[in-house]
Design goal:
single chain, alpha/beta, 2 domains
Length: 307
């Protein structure tokens, strides 16, 4: 386990908190507390955002705790108190959208990054959850250290190490009781699946995290290969697509579909065979808002027209 000094060195080496404006997503838990303290100690221009969803009886206490911590560090804290609409759908998805939406607005006003406290433990859980929920290479890539303005400086630090860091620094944190509930699929991965894997091998969490890191590096190489096939074009001859190795053809189809829609199209790759069966002219809705269209043997994609 990394000592506090090693945690600092690991995070500093990422270069994600280099004296730039950053809005830290601050829940008051161990991970975000560790992140906030490190951002300050590494000299970043820090502000913080806490979102009080009002879903727990002690949520106001979390906000008060965050205010005290930020005051002690001389950090400006913004607190958002949204209320969930009746038609909001999935609770965790709604909360995530609210949190990142609020952070994006603050960061945009400051020309800042948004720092999230996702750890190596979260990375392993994310890979396992996505692998169970959605097949495909992307499920194994995990979370990126940087995704636009969003940065994750703690991906090389485990949850146990953020707790040890906070204890070493004398930093108190709040525990979210909902993290212990098995009502959420992600919590079942944390409390049941990952411990089962660790019973098979003690390094299971690190091995999953490291695998995601290696695959993400390799994915960058594959992206370059796909770019070389397309050579800047947003279309490809169907005969040429059919002649590619199947794995490369799937990646090309996905790249074209996502380029046309501006969003993730997870179904595109596995519909490659259906796309190839269109012949010289035809159209096919792939789902996720993407339509494949072949004209005179040339494949391109477009957003599915609204009904």
């Amino acid at each position: 386990m990394k000592a506090a000094g090693e945690v600092r060195a690991t995070v500093e080496a990422t270069g994600l908190l280099r004296r730039a404006p950053v809005v830290v997503l601050f829940s008051g838990g161990r991970d975000s507390t560790c992140l906030l303290d490190l951002a300050v100690r590494l000299g970043a221009d820090v502000s913080a955002l806490h979102v009080d969803y009002g879903l727990r009886s002690d949520s106001a206490g979390d906000a008060e705790h965050c205010a005290r911590v930020c005051a002690s560090l001389g950090i400006e804290l913004a607190v958002q108190r949204p209320r969930r609409p009746e038609d909001a759908g999935n609770l965790q998805a709604w909360a995530r959208d609210v949190r990142y939406g609020a952070a994006a607005r603050l960061a945009g006003a400051r020309d800042a990054d948004v720092a999230a406290g996702h750890t190596a433990s979260d990375q392993a859980e994310t890979v396992l959850y996505r692998l169970a929920a959605s097949p495909g290479r992307r499920a194994l890539l995990g979370m990126a250290a940087r995704d636009g303005r969003l940065v994750r400086p703690l991906l090389g630090i485990t949850r146990a190490e953020t707790a040890a860091y906070c204890r070493a620094r004398g930093l108190a944190w709040r525990e979210d009781a909902s993290n212990a509930s098995d009502a959420f699929a992600r919590n079942r991965v944390r409390h049941e699946l990952l411990p089962a894997l660790q019973s098979v091998h003690p390094a299971a969490e690190e091995n999953v995290r490291r695998t995601a890191e290696l695959l993400r590096e390799e994915a960058a190489v594959l992206d370059e290969v796909v770019a070389g096939v397309l050579d800047g074009r947003e279309e490809i001859e169907l005969d040429r697509l059919a002649a590619l190795p199947p794995a490369l053809a799937r990646l090309v189809v996905r790249r074209l579909a996502e380029g046309a829609t501006g969003t993730v199209v997870p179904r595109a790759a596995r519909r490659t065979g259906d796309v190839l069966a269109l012949g010289s002219d035809g159209a096919l809705d792939l789902g996720n808002g993407a339509r494949a269209r072949v004209r005179a043997g040339i494949l391109s994609f477009e957003p599915t027209p609204a009904r």
